[in-house]
Request: fold
Amino acid sequence: MAEPHNREFVVASGVSAATSLALLATMTDAVGLLLAAPFMAGGYGVMCSVCQSAAVREAGPGSVGLANSTYYMGFDVGMTLGPVIGGALFGAFDPAWFYPALMVTVPAAWLVCAVSRRRAVCGGDNGRETES
Reply:
């Protein structure tokens, strides 16, 4: 995701996800859950679409199937490990601290994105042929 316009989506989605987790951490009834839901959709939902489209654009028209397969493989790994890690966190933390503990994932994702972006910018053409 080295394209500059993706940065806005990453930041907006991260802020939205963090807002959702903060609302979930402070909820006392179903209203808190209803307030958090649109922020989760704006965070997680938008980010999924942005990441998939970035993978497809990065791969190019001849490799759309490969890009989608690779994206969904990572998505499936996340969906597999998420409940395992979430279950371990739920067992390790007081339930009141569960959502605040998950908020650590937002800056962690930003860090991964920043490192990936730096490698893409500093790493040259990443082995791809360039048009002259």
